[in-house]
Amino acid sequence: MEKWRIVFMGTPDFAVPALRALLNSNIPVVGILTQPDKPVGRGLAVQASPVKRTGLEHAIPVFQPERLRSPGAVTTLKTWAPDLVVVVAYGQILSPEVLSMPARGCINVHASLLPRWRGAAPIQRALLAGDAQSGVTIMQMEAGLDTGPILRMRAEPITPTTTGGSLHDALAQSGADLLLETIRDMQTGKVSPQPQPDTGVTYAAKLTRADGLIDWRRRSVEVDRQIRALHPWPGAYTHLHGRVVKVLTCRPVARSEGGEPGKVVAIREDGLEVVCGEGNLVLTGLQTEGRRRMQGAEWARGMSGQLLFGSHRP
């Protein structure tokens, strides 16, 4: 079977399993494009992307253009002469010139069942919406936002305990496996691109920290989905006595006692029972800003007086 020269474009942890799958399968990755090194964490230490670190481990040439449309980036791509470009969460839009450069085109690993959840945050948006399943799609890239023809697709169930982190990891691995199958099928002519349907299109807007603020007036099942969807990033949070409290884990329960939304009505063995707009929620894992993470009941022992969580800082 002919060995295609592949250029890999990706940046975060989600892209690493796909890159490793290509490298472990002896598929020639002739170069990697990833985002420039950036300051990370409280100390703002400059760090290379996970994809860059993986590429350097395997002695693959890595290029980090500020803009993919720059002459230098285009020249580098032409020098690498790819037969196929594989894109996994790269973080930049590919220009028409780049899209048309490789003989076999550009394909993308997208973390949703397209056309549902096109865009930047498909994993979290699927959880927030209460979807029963998510998945990965391998598509042929074109100028539109995640609009290209579908090559392969694989579903992944969403359970009542699925979090943004666990779904991220499952889809990253599923996408890596499906990517290898797709490339092999492309090489043997077994792929027939299918246009995306016009119905069922939704967009997964980029997440911000503001998406994590809990509104206790909402139903407990909705707050539960929010907490799970945004774990570990950007995280769900509330306010108490003027401080930010991160809510890490929880479980919905039937209402044992009502009251003002956000009020703690019971201390259970595993956490705090909080009133929501409909139903209650037991918070089993919490972290006050500047302090360590705690199990819910342990966290409650350090508190005194009436506990009323708020949706804004007093």
Features:
six-stranded antiparallel beta sheet, elongated, single chain
- What value does the Rg take, in angstroms? 22 Å
Q: What is the strand arrangement across the widest sheet?
A: 5-2-1-6-7-9-10
The computed structural class is alpha/beta
Q: Which outline best applies? A: elongated
Strand content: 25-35%
Summarize the SSE layout with pairings.
Blueprint: E1 6-10, H1 16-24, E2 29-33, E3 38-40, E4 45-47, H2 50-57, E5 62-63, H3 71-80, E6 84-88, H4 96-99, E7 106-110, E8 118-119, H5 122-128, E9 133-140, E10 150-157, H6 164-187, E11 203-204, H7 220-229, E12 236-240, E13 243-253, E14 264-267, E15 272-275, E16 280-288, E17 294-295, H8 296-301
How would you portray this structure in words?
This protein is of the alpha/beta class and 314 residues long. Helix content is 25%, strand content 26%. It is built from eight helices and 17 strands. The protein has helices spanning 16-24, 50-57, 71-80, 96-99, 122-128, 164-187, 220-229, 296-301; strands at 6-10, 29-33, 38-40, 45-47, 62-63, 84-88, 106-110, 118-119, 133-140, 150-157, 203-204, 236-240, 243-253, 264-267, 272-275, 280-288, 294-295. The strands form four sheets. The chain has a seven-stranded mixed β-sheet with strand order 5-2-1-6-7-9-10, sandwiched between helices. Strands 12, 13, 14, 15, 16 and 17 form a six-stranded antiparallel β-sheet that branches. A two-stranded antiparallel sheet has the order 3-4. Helix 1 runs parallel beside helix 6 and helix 5 (122-128) runs antiparallel to helix 7. The mean pLDDT is 94.
